[in-house]
Every structure is written in C-alpha cells, then in structure tokens.
Design brief:
Layout: E1 2-11, H1 15-24, E2 35-46, E3 51-60, H2 63-70, H3 73-78, E4 94-99
Antiparallel strand pairs: 1-3, 1-4, 2-3
C-alpha cells in the first residue's frame, strides 16, 4: 500500500472556503486503477502562527498506481483551475509519500 499526503497551511478565516473547494471538485480518483480511498483531514489551528493545518490523504495499492494518477487526464482535470482559487494558502502544499512496511 502507498499513502500520498499533501499538507496545507490555510490562513485562519479561510477554512470554510478551502473545504468548499475540496468538496466541490470532481477528482475522478475512483476511475484510476489502484485507488483505494481519499480523506481531507482538518488538523490543529495554530493561532500564534495564523493558520489551520489540513492534509489530503489518499491510499493506493502501490506507488506505481499513485504515479500513474499524477500523469493522468483525471489528475490534470482535478488540478486545472488550482491557480485561480482564492483560498488563502500560506506557502505551497507539502507532499509526503509513504510505502507500507507493515499493516493489519
């Protein structure tokens, strides 16, 4: 199994708008071979630093299936208008990818 995560720092006050963007987009992930699941996670709000932490979390059968997604038409469609979104991101998303070593 492969876990792909992007961490986002979203300015306090922009959380609702950020979540609406994710809820309203059609990622077409289910069309991809090897896709297992997706979750958008809301983390802690860091008042002193002015942001709420989020993570997008996808599970894939393996890293090759995830890599195929990043080269797919579905990926391009899902990210087509990313630069036009008005959500107040603090920095670029931080990607983290993990191969499963052990699981139950």
């Amino acid at each position: 199994m492969y876990v792909a995560m992007n961490r986002f720092r979203i300015a306090i006050g922009s959380e609702e708008e950020f979540e609406a963007v994710w809820k309203g987009r059609d990622s077409r992930l289910s069309e991809l071979h090897g896709f297992i699941s997706f979750h958008l996670l809301r983390g802690k709000t860091f008042e002193d630093e002015g942001y709420t932490l989020y993570a997008s979390h996808t599970l894939w059968e393996n890293e090759d299936a995830f890599s195929a997604w990043t080269r797919s038409e579905q990926f391009r469609d899902a990210h087509r208008n990313a630069g036009e979104r008005k959500v107040n991101y603090l920095g670029h998303p931080e990607f983290e990818g993990f191969n499963s070593v052990e699981g139950a």
